[in-house]
Amino acid sequence: MTRLLAERSCERLVLELVRRLDLGDPSTVCDLFTPDGIWEWPYDGRRIEGREALRAYFGSRPVDRLSRRMCTNILVTVDSPDTAAATTYFATYRVDGYADGALIPPRLPANIGHYEDTFRKIDGVWLMATRTLVLPFGGPTERLDDPSRS
Fold it and tell me: What's the rounded Cα separation, in Å, for the pair 126 and 147?
């Protein structure tokens, strides 16, 4: 039962993080990480370390960005009573230049890949320790008011 609760707690962290990025306040994503938490994108060398750096990074997201992340195949492995790891597949649909309430035609995902996460239990609470984005398929974020778009 302890293992199942740990798996579910970590899975919920993955889902809550996505909800905050897409539907909530992106700057609060940092609260789901350990104080020394890391988010990294090896394909372009980005690495954000620590809660305050994560808050600043995700808080600087464009205010007119519309995104939806579809996550699946969340596989959590509990390594010890206080550590776990997970792999999650994702597809991100994302545009900039969005106006509230507008319905935009469907488009292809901007990114498809998977996350490799590690978790630590601190004072009885599971938190994300690291998130590494593995991105085999990716492209720029489309700008809706870009005259060159079709």
Answer: 46
